[in-house]
Amino acid sequence: ELLTRLGILDGVGENHFAPEQKATRAEMAAILVRLGQLPAGEPGRQSFVDSGPEDTWAWAEIEALTQAGITDGTGDYCFSPGRLLTRAETAAFLTRMLRYKLDLSQDGLIYPTDVEESYWAWAEILRAVNGVTRPLPVEQGPFRPKSRQDTRKYM
């Protein structure tokens, strides 16, 4: 309720929240921009071929995240706004947004066993499970997406 009142998290229309609906990358972009009160993206600038005003409702939020250095897209000059968000992407967005740093030399770090060091979001996942948030008991176990409701637990 508080996030809705603050204009950070909206429902899906007509007094519905859809807690089991999966979240998209565009929805996460909008939430992060509102949460961080980031300035709007530069008018007329479009960093991704699939994220202009004619492509997605969240084009300005996506551009704001890009200009803030929080995202560089999914490759091939795309952001993939309609694609479902993964837990790895959630970790990357949040740790970049919060500018959280992690000292890898500290004792007691959690290393999820299902994430290889070569994985694109390895560092972000380590930061997420070791400091930014501890939403679910990890116990060095899997880091799996489930629903939009799970994504909210990271907020």
The parts where pLDDT drops under 50 for at least 5 residues are 133-146, 151-155
Rounded mean pLDDT score: 81
Order of helices and strands: HHHHHH
Q: Total number of helical segments?
A: 6
Please compute the radius of gyration using only Cα atoms: 16 Å
Estimate what percentage of residues fall within beta strands: under 5%
Helix content: 25-40%
CA-based shape:
globular
Short description:
This protein has 155 residues and is mainly α.
Question: What do you see in this structure?
Answer:
The chain is an all-alpha fold. The chain is built from 6 helices and no strands. Helix 2 (25-36) crosses helix 3 (59-67) and helix 2 (25-36) runs parallel beside helix 4 (87-97). The two termini are 14 Å apart.
